[in-house]
């Protein structure tokens, strides 16, 4: 009898529980915000290229419980656990065909803020050069901080999942912010207002601004393109398809500005090449025209001519010396690196860089009569310090685990490096620039991820993120290393000081 009841109830469940049909469930519940093609709309694109970083259980809990402080509702009362599980599998399937994202589609996505009113002067009385932005990834906002008082001047919504450093216009008035979904937002710091936004790619990596502030380059994974926008009105100046010399299409890992060269330099994911895209002087005016035979042909009449430099290995993480002649690149295998001379377009040195260094967050400082560059490793607990005149390793400093970000300031005797991964993710090391020894290890919140540092304009204070949803930015006295203030924030990630950025401080990433 008992067995009969159990089987009957199992039968009843099988009859009443809706069968998982993820395509139908998507169309009924998700497409209104995330788009019929899963390429985003009000909500982000839901394709492997954008979800790859959202692990399975996280995706289940976002669908089931919703995402606080966003428009994402909870679906636990609409979809069964089985349906949600099937939906996560469906969302991780690659699209059969990626739609075109050409100049026409990009321009059609542009949304200018009709309420935006430009102003002549800042609408606030803080030092405009000491404004510091804190990206809060917990609820997709940016806090605009007065770098002297740490008072919050504004807190504005950004597109979903901002990645990479925001880029300031040369006078520090406007800031451009990019999300992994390819949206680029322009914000006026003087007026404390959004100017507009445009979707420059479907899945993007980062942005770079030209030294004269006229152009913004957006590095895309999807499609394989570089979008160049006019910073003025966010209109498209050019969409460059990225194909290596042999025609192989490639994603762009990152784009950087090279101010003295009046060019953007691109790290490519799928071909062993570095690209240089000129926006200013003609390449021959740069004094290395003799070298063109080894590169792809330059299209005459193109306002953004491309130079393609073949590299001995895939190099998709970069660091430039202060002259922007040399590019240090980490090899894909994570067991070494190379120095490419951009003037002659050739490798000039090998680097002893094991443990997958994160060159993108490297920094430099004067060390005796030379300049050193230091980078944390993503795969092991170490920071490598390299002499930039000989490219030899000066020291490998052991840390309590792999780190992600490093920072210093010209006026500070210390370098700060986090331990982003592993059991010691709650520590921040402070390294003496002269002795190259760790002089202090801070552990401000036991068990919380503590990462990324930015200095104030004068280097007096260091701002550290407690990278948790109920996190904070902690302000430290950069000399005594004592805590001065704690500003509650929603999963703060990077912080960016206007002065340090626009003056290319050697202690910060560019
Ligand atoms: Fe980043 C900068 C690449 C994962 C937060 N990250 C950069 C830059 C590159 C890069 C090339 C420099 C671009 C710039 O600022 O213009 N990041 C990568 C990766 O390849 C990697 C390892 C894998 C990926 O999925 O993209 C990666 N990055 C992450 C994260 O998981 C982080 C910690 C959290 C997040 O928000 O995605 C993260 N990356 C950041 C931040 C910066 C950044 C905060 C800007 C640092 C700065 O001080 O300028």
Automatic annotation (TrEMBL):
Keyword Chaperone in annotation: no
PROSITE patterns tied to this protein: CYTC (PS51007)
Domain of life, source organism: Bacteria
Keyword entries, A-Z: Heme, Iron, Metal-binding, Signal
Keyword Heme: yes
Cytochrome c domain span: 17-95
Matching CDD domains: 8prop_heme-binding_NirN
Xref: InterPro entries: Cyt_c-like_dom, Cyt_c-like_dom_sf, Cyt_cd1_C_sf, Haem_d1_sf, Host-pathogen_enzymatic-act
Signal sequence segment: 1-19
PANTHER family listed in its UniProt record: DIHYDRO-HEME D1 DEHYDROGENASE, PROTEIN NIRF
This protein's name: Nitrite reductase
UniProt source species: Roseibium sediminicola
Lineage of producing organism: Bacteria, Pseudomonadati, Pseudomonadota, Alphaproteobacteria, Hyphomicrobiales
């Amino acid at each position: 009898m008992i067995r009969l009841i159990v089987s009957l109830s199992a039968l009843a469940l099988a009859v009443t529980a809706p069968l998982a049909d993820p395509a139908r469930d998507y169309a009924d519940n998700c497409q209104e915000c995330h788009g019929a093609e899963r390429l985003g709309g009000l909500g982000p694109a839901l394709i492997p290229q954008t979800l790859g970083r959202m692990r399975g259980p996280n995706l289940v809990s976002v669908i089931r419980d919703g995402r606080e402080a966003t428009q994402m509702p909870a679906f636990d009362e609409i979809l069964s656990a089985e349906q949600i599980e099937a939906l996560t599998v469906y969302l991780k399937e690659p699209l059969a065909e990626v739609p075109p994202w050409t100049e026409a589609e990009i321009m059609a996505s542009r949304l200018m803020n009709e309420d935006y009113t430009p102003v002549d002067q800042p609408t606030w009385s803080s030092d405009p050069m000491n404004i510091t932005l804190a990206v809060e990834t917990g609820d997709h906002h940016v806090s605009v901080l007065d770098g002297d008082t740490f008072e919050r001047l504004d807190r504005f919504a950004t597109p979903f999942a901002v990645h990479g450093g925001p880029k300031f216009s040369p006078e520090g008035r406007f800031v451009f912010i990019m999300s992994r979904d390819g949206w680029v937002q322009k914000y006026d710091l003087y007026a404390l207002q959004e100017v507009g936004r445009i979707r420059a790619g479907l899945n993007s990596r980062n942005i770079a601004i030209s030294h004269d502030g006229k152009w913004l380059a957006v590095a895309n994974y999807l499609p394989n393109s570089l979008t160049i926008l006019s910073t003025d009105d966010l209109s498209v100046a050019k969409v460059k398809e990225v194909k290596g010399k042999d025609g192989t299409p490639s994603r762009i890992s990152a784009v950087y500005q090279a101010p003295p060269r009046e060019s953007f330099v691109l790290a490519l994911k799928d071909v062993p090449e570095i690209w240089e895209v000129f926006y200013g002087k003609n390449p021959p005016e740069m004094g290395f025209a003799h070298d063109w035979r080894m590169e792809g042909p330059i299209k005459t009449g193109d306002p953004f001519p491309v130079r393609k430099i073949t590299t001995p290995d895939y190099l998709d993480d970069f660091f430039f010396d202060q002259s922007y002649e040399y590019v240090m690149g980490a090899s894909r295998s994570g067991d070494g690196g190379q120095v490419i001379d951009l003037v002659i377009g050739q490798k000039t040195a090998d680097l002893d860089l094991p443990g997958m260094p994160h060159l993108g967050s490297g920094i430099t400082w004067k060390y005796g009569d030379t300049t050193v560059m230091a980078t944390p490793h993503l795969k092991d607990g170490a920071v490598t310090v390299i002499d930039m005149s000989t490219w030899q390793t000066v020291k490998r400093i052991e840390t309590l685990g792999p780190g992600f970000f490093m920072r210093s300031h010209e006026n500070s005797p210390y370098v700060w490096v986090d331990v982003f991964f592993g059991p010691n993710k709650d520590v921040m090391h402070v390294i003496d620039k002269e002795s190259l020894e760790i002089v202090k290890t801070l552990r401000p919140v036991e068990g919380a991820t503590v990462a990324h540092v930015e200095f104030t304009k004068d280097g007096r204070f260091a701002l550290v993120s407690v990278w948790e949803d109920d996190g904070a930015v902690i302000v430290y006295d950069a000399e005594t290393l004592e805590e001065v203030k704690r500003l509650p924030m929603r999963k703060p990630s990077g912080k960016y000081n206007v002065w340090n950025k626009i003056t290319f401080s050697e202690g910060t990433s560019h």
